[in-house]
Amino acid sequence: MALLRIRKFPDAVLKQPAKPVAEIDGRLDGFIESMVQTMYAAPGVGLAAPQVGDPRRVIVLDTDHENPGAHLLKLINPEVVESEGSVIWEEGCLSVIDFTADVKRAAKVMVRAWTPEQKEIEIEADGLLAVALQHEIDHLDGKLFIDRISRIKRELYRRRLAKLIKEGKADEQRPSRVQI
């Protein structure tokens, strides 16, 4: 499978809400496998289809860095159907270079989705998995984690990014650790 190009903020495709997958068939399998390989290579915990320029509601996640693939989730048309509590989690993103911030999220979620095998599943999650699910589903809704921080912090990031771009260093930035 081919590695896909991860789109970076401020690419307009990241702000477009994704469209539901109408028919789950074998044609989606190759694309999802390319998403998985791209996520691991980045390195990332999750990846949403809009991050690679695809308008469909598809995400992949693996929060177990010690055993890649052991807890891999491939989700089609995921949606949060229940949430409770709140947690502050430091987030980064493969599409937001050189920046992390504390983001308030639900502490526990239940997500309903379809698998590539056409099975409807429900996932109850807390901790990193809950945060990663919410983060990736936000991508499907055209939101980035920086949309959930203060306007001042967001503006400071935009200025720093503009400086990196002006200096020609934006493409050199690679995450120093695994990103959501």
Keywords:
180 residues; alpha+beta; 5-stranded antiparallel β-sheet
What is the N-to-C succession of helices and strands? HEEEEEEEHH
Count of individual beta strands: 7
Q: What is the CATH-assigned architecture?
A: Alpha-Beta Complex
Query: How many domains, in number, for the residues?
Result: 1
Could you name the CATH class? Answer: Alpha Beta
Largest sheet: 5 strands, antiparallel
Percent range of helical residues? 25-40%
Shape: globular
Q: Low-confidence segments, ≥5 residues, pLDDT <50?
A: none
Question: Would you give an account of this structure?
Answer:
The structure is a single chain. With 180 residues, the chain is α+β, with helices and mostly antiparallel strands. It is built from three helices and seven strands; from the N terminus they run αβββββββαα. The chain has helices spanning 27-41, 127-140, 151-166; strands at 46-48, 58-61, 73-84, 87-93, 96-105, 108-114, 120-126. The strands form two sheets. Strands 1-2-3-6-7 form a five-stranded antiparallel β-sheet. Strands 4-5 form a two-stranded antiparallel sheet. The radius of gyration is 16 Å and the shape is globular. The model has no long low-confidence stretch (mean pLDDT 94).
Write the layout of secondary structure elements.
Layout: H1 27-41, E1 46-48, E2 58-61, E3 73-84, E4 87-93, E5 96-105, E6 108-114, E7 120-126, H2 127-140, H3 151-166
Short description:
This protein has 180 residues and is α+β, with helices and mostly antiparallel strands.
